[in-house]
Design a protein that fits this description.
alpha+beta, two-stranded antiparallel sheet, 25% strand, elongated
Length: 187
């Protein structure tokens, strides 16, 4: 079942952020744009490449008013240990959520029940806590965080320009469309 257009479910979890353990809940996702990036497990292979890539985009995402969260079914303690021992993960400045009881991964329908781990799911959430975009990849397929920038810019544009939509490959300051009877069959 698609989560697009639905408000995220309530949750509360422990997280690791900038050398401290913090609590995070669904309320943290309200009032600003957010990216929630699920990954299978700490101390693995594809995951650190993805999370490091997400960190490389973090500054640009912050300029857009976006907060970033990563989440796996590992604990916040494991996140700290990984952060302290991995060169790639040691760069991370965004919040790393622990989901050892699997409730958040279930809420977002990315839990591989058999493996007990989250799939590679990426969610863009608007300031109302509503999912605007999602992507789920198989375990062996890493993601490219740079594509989030254009998706978020499009989501922000559509939110502030009711009645307009962003076509494929839309870039900031590009032309948009105003769906109407006159456009039917002309694109």
């Amino acid at each position: 079942m698609s989560l697009i257009g639905k408000e995220i479910e309530a949750f509360q979890a422990n997280a690791y952020h900038k050398g401290e353990f913090i609590e995070v809940s669904n309320e943290n996702f309200k009032g600003k744009w957010s990216v929630l990036c699920f990954y299978p497990a700490d101390f693995t292979f594809v995951c650190p490449t993805e999370l490091e890539d997400l960190q490389e985009q973090y500054g640009e995402l912050q300029k857009l008013g976006v907060e970033v969260y990563s989440c796996s079914t590992d604990t916040h303690f494991t996140h700290k240990a990984w952060h302290d021992t991995s060169e790639a993960i040691g760069k991370i400045e965004y919040i790393m959520i622990g989901d050892p009881n699997h409730s958040i991964a279930r809420n977002f329908d990315v839990l591989d029940e058999e493996a007990g781990a989250a799939q590679r799911g990426t969610f863009i959430i608007d300031p109302d806590g509503v999912v605007q975009a999602m992507e789920i990849n198989a375990d062996g397929i890493g993601r490219d965080a740079s594509v989030l920038l254009d998706k978020i810019k499009a989501g922000q544009y559509v939110r502030t320009h009711p009645g307009e939509v962003c076509p494929a490959k839309w870039k900031e300051d590009g032309e948009t469309l105003k769906p109407s009877f006159d456009l039917v069959g002309k694109i």
